Amino acid sequence: MSDLSPNYLITLELRDLLVEKLGVLQKNNVALQQSLREQQTQTTAQTEDLFLELLEVADALEALLNYLENNPDPSPEFMERLPKSIGAVNRKFLSVLNKRQILPIELQEGTEPDFNLCRVIDREERTDMPDQTITKIVRRGFLLGEKVFRPTEVITAKSDNG
User: What's the pTM value of the predicted model, to 2 decimals?
Assistant: First the structure.
């Protein structure tokens, strides 16, 4: 039987160049694998931090719910503090988002909508406002950096002649 595999002759220069390039590729491969491991470790740590912060928000909500569950007839003092308590939980949650560059979109009722930032979900007949004016913000929107993460949902005025 004859050897059917072809034999290639390469110059010593080409062989050295190939060996050098293989060495560089192996070095790059090791560096990329190390970088990937570091990124995975960093991502895991960031994810754990996010979940721990969200658990603080959940704990605050759970404490309020537990109090209400265990006190079916809450004191007037508690009921008076409840909006502030819920506001504090909301601020905590928004600060968790803020740390991750997720910021609320600031739109005002009585202004014209910026359709890059909001979505009109309904229109209502209004004679006291110009057509297309925001009458109500239904759901707050958020930006992730410069990107609209979630558009603000609004209701706009619909004039008789609009």
Answer: 0.70
Residue 66 sits in the same domain as residue 134? no
113, 39: one domain: no
Q: What is the CATH classification number for the domain harbouring 136?
A: 2.30.22.10
pLDDT tens-digit readout, 113-127: 999 999 999 999 998
The angle at the Cα of 133, spanning 132 to 139, to the nearest 5 degrees, equals: 105
Q: What is the pLDDT of residues 87-101, one digit of tens each?
A: 999 999 999 999 999
Angle at 76 between CA 74 and CA 78, to 5 degrees: 65
**How many distinct structural domains can be found in the chain?**
2
Residue 72: is it exposed, middle or buried by C-beta count within 10 angstroms (0-12/13-18/19+)? exposed
Residue 138 is part of which domain span? Answer: 104-158
Closest CA to 77 of 65, 67, 92: 67
Q: In what order do the strands lie in the sheet with 152-158?
A: 118-125, 152-158, 134-139
